[in-house]
Amino acid sequence: MAAVHRIALVGAGRMGAIRGRIAAASPRFDLAYLVEPRADAAGPLAAELGCRTASFEAMLADRNVAGVIVASSTDTHLDLTLAALRAGKAVFCEKPLDLEPSRLRAHAADLAAPARPLYVAFNRRFDPHLRTLKARLDAGAVGALETLHLISHDPAPPPLSFVPTSGGLFRDFTIHDFDMAGWLTGETPADVFAWAECLVDPAIGAAGDVDTARLILRYATGRLGVISNTRRSGYGYDQRVEAYGSKGALMAGNPRTSTVETWTEAGATAAPIYGGFAARYPKSYAAELDHFADILAGEAEPAAGYAASLAALALAEAAARSLRTGAPAPVEAP
Amino acid sequence: MAAVHRIALVGAGRMGAIRGRIAAASPRFDLAYLVEPRADAAGPLAAELGCRTASFEAMLADRNVAGVIVASSTDTHLDLTLAALRAGKAVFCEKPLDLEPSRLRAHAADLAAPARPLYVAFNRRFDPHLRTLKARLDAGAVGALETLHLISHDPAPPPLSFVPTSGGLFRDFTIHDFDMAGWLTGETPADVFAWAECLVDPAIGAAGDVDTARLILRYATGRLGVISNTRRSGYGYDQRVEAYGSKGALMAGNPRTSTVETWTEAGATAAPIYGGFAARYPKSYAAELDHFADILAGEAEPAAGYAASLAALALAEAAARSLRTGAPAPVEAP
Amino acid sequence: MAAVHRIALVGAGRMGAIRGRIAAASPRFDLAYLVEPRADAAGPLAAELGCRTASFEAMLADRNVAGVIVASSTDTHLDLTLAALRAGKAVFCEKPLDLEPSRLRAHAADLAAPARPLYVAFNRRFDPHLRTLKARLDAGAVGALETLHLISHDPAPPPLSFVPTSGGLFRDFTIHDFDMAGWLTGETPADVFAWAECLVDPAIGAAGDVDTARLILRYATGRLGVISNTRRSGYGYDQRVEAYGSKGALMAGNPRTSTVETWTEAGATAAPIYGGFAARYPKSYAAELDHFADILAGEAEPAAGYAASLAALALAEAAARSLRTGAPAPVEAP
Amino acid sequence: MAAVHRIALVGAGRMGAIRGRIAAASPRFDLAYLVEPRADAAGPLAAELGCRTASFEAMLADRNVAGVIVASSTDTHLDLTLAALRAGKAVFCEKPLDLEPSRLRAHAADLAAPARPLYVAFNRRFDPHLRTLKARLDAGAVGALETLHLISHDPAPPPLSFVPTSGGLFRDFTIHDFDMAGWLTGETPADVFAWAECLVDPAIGAAGDVDTARLILRYATGRLGVISNTRRSGYGYDQRVEAYGSKGALMAGNPRTSTVETWTEAGATAAPIYGGFAARYPKSYAAELDHFADILAGEAEPAAGYAASLAALALAEAAARSLRTGAPAPVEAP
Predict the structure, then answer these.
(1) Interface membership of C125 toward D (CB under 8 Å)
(2) What are chain D's partners, defined as 3 or more CB pairs within 8 angstroms?
(3) Fewer CB atoms < 10 Å away: N or C end of chain D?
(4) In chain B, % of residues over pLDDT 70
(5) ipTM value of the model?
């Protein structure tokens, strides 16, 4: 009989609800607490998930809680994670662990080799399509990896109110591609070059951000990587990976909402791709929580944590520097 | 707060396990009993599902059991269904309800307008891809439906031991296509013509069955339908629907195990399709149990029951007659 | 220096113009004459092709004419072919050589082993896509061929005036599929079963023909073949071949008018397929004339002639008989 | 009756043979001369094309020669073009007109508004797939063009002997993408950034060149363009255009050598793409010569000439500067 791990969820926002539903439905977890200061949000979700609400402190005081899912607002991630680790809980933290590399580095002692395991949720690493691509790449299906093209195009920009606190396109959005590049290459780029514009909505520019970007990563081994980002595609949530090797290429395309094609005189129309991350990545969210159960059972090491967070953030910092200076920027060693 | 329906599962075989796992994970059911005479099969599955084992009679005696999933061997479906209905339980019965139309007709009084709802699991009706096709067809996306092509190719033949009790290719396998044709057209064909051969394994022929078939259905409205079946495709579990209308066509293709393509000098290889029904149709199995919960809640009428079973079986009978006589066979009115 | 063959073209209709333009542009032919009784049609085409007009007799009298392309109306094919053969000319005759098997058989002595080579233009045998399929099939890429599905859907019905003289759907249209089946299997079916309807235009039915058909071919070896025909698809000129073997399948799809896809929120729309045979099969028409040049040079035997014509026609006759009697019809041995 | 234009071909190399065969087969040209100093190359091609050999001067002296196709080695393009223009001939010159912008500019007076029309063969502008994409883009099918991704991957590197005289990757190879960007956007980028490596063959690096590159173009309007190049793809001659607009995207994919797919348990393998430019772009080569005939007939202005050559070359120069300096380089105004 498999062990059941008592866990708590912190945060009743969009990601909190997604994580909570998976945890509540999984036979591997006993989701005991929801921690959420906003009572109006806490109550309904706790009822749906069949768990109690509690303060963060009260929850930490329950010695049977083995793990904590930190899905609160980004600015609270680091403090809550540190507190939970100190209380002896394993932590599953939504990305980013923090937006400031300096703050991460200040806690390196507690985060780099934490007392209890720390997983930071770079969910794309658990997408079955991308895992298939990586497995084939690692198996040498197309020879040595030479260049990489990562496409992340959002269907529509986030609410304007989110922009000022997002950390900017590179730290909020491109961060997934930075992590994907690290995961696929196993290498940190030497330099990054970024050009970005505000083409989608001038209000994004007025808030000090950009919405359309192209970046090149250059690796010491000679590899080159391109990242393509936009906040508004006009055709859905476009998430592709193209890996070019010495003997061919591996292309991870977009799953479609159905296999149905409509054939008319205008051509053959394939079904739309998905409209957003919640619909596109449900299997990765489920697999991540399975991974957390494996971690709690002592059967797995976290696939990503402090080092991956810092590496992705260092790339985002370098990209922002490149954009500011108009020149390539070296990537700080993690 | 949504109602939770107490149900029981009869049968711990392959389909029983599939149904049981979905029911156990669903917040809409309280899966209370597993009925399975073979103790060695009953125990482990009951443990996994977190339910008690019980005799069929003891289970029926629990007045709080609202519904019964009949997933036992085909030859027991009808008797168990009748008994459960008589005991006031709603029934979810694996297809076929029975292999003999005469036996079904003998119980028409109890089955056609049963005291409690009866759903017979023609699972493809709940596949999201096929539902998308049907929705577009019904919305007139390609005009009036004129011809239909249904492809069901199994990756590999069933165990030889299964062949003699299977009812034969048409009643065991083509039955899904017969139901699909009825569901898509809303019409019963006037006649059917069938040619079938034993090309895959002579042992199937020795057991009195065929393994490769092509059928044409002719409707009173002039529509024509083709069914293409084989027990061994050599390329996976191929399940397609092609619906040709007066203004175009709708094509439901095979989902693939991933979106990854491998590009080499040999061409671009798309990922394999699924290898069997359990991997191909998980969403339809889940949706069917949701449908059963809706039925138990009084929010839905069964999508398929006695009439659909009889209609599909009548087609299978006509096809078998056509194959025997070498001529088209009229389809008995349901 | 390659030989240049003096040839003549008979017929200035649609196919005559297609053949003439290819012949005139080819360095392997000296297209010397156009034979066409309708002066208004003959003059402009002869001018375009840069050749003289002549009577059929005058053209035959030119001893330097090595070959004749017979592209006149169907009812004249056989007589003109026989006359040209008798005059010592090789013949390239549009299909069908004749619509009546009895008439063909009456001239078996002159046609089966003709004095000069006779090619009958079953053009699909020269389509590069279908040739690729056949080459892979013959190389065993998918094991032994078990079943075949041939799809020929016209975008729109022919002019009503054509229907009464067309010979009917099977002899005019399905004839290509009958030949394709023979070419791919190398076998004559034992029986054929056909159901056909008039769904597209009642006027076609009033003229005594059908416009939508499904046929099954049964071979002595156990193979089964399905043919799918309609006179109006609503989505273009659909010409596909699906060959199912013991180890997989080969699928020849429709080429598209461009590789451009349009991605919007409605999905990804691939370019239309071609709208008719002239746009779909230009390479097969060019390859056929190259084949005729090879024949004239003594470097090739005709890929199809009397035997292939008779075989396809025998299938059409059997299909018509099946439709009339409502039962499978045996196919007459060629 | 359409006019026939007497023309001459200069150069019997690979492109000369391609151009010559199309011209010889076209009813719109009288290909009168082949100019080629190497007698061993000149004789056979002239024989094949059915034209005389002549010296460049003798050919120019024929007052009936209206146009000259310059397909000699790159270093002779400019001088021969200038001489032919001075002799009153229209010129069809293979790209590049010259590798040195300064040399082009030195002859601006003769080239920018030449006495007779000058077409420089940026052949991709005449590819039907890319024209379809541009037509849809210009028609606003996906709103305003925001970003562009041009992929040009060669199947295999050129002979090493070619590398030193090629002008380098950007001026020899990327030049097509630079022109394509200009053609699609109608805009000259403000800056370009390039990173490039030698990953395919160290000998290319030893010869002072690179074989793998990624570039970003930045436009004054905010548009961004990415160019992806490699000298060896491992999967064929990959030529794609992705145009992202405010309302969707247009994607011009690679045509395949056939429509045949092979379905096995390993997946579905589509036919290979083409192996090189001669097989990929025959229709663009034919359309370019038609364009030249239109120009000679006074019915069209050259689609590309001095300005387009200079614009593409200016981009190549800027890219080379960027690669040298490691910083973005402004693009010189044409």
Answers:
(1) no
(2) A, B, C
(3) N
(4) 99
(5) 0.95
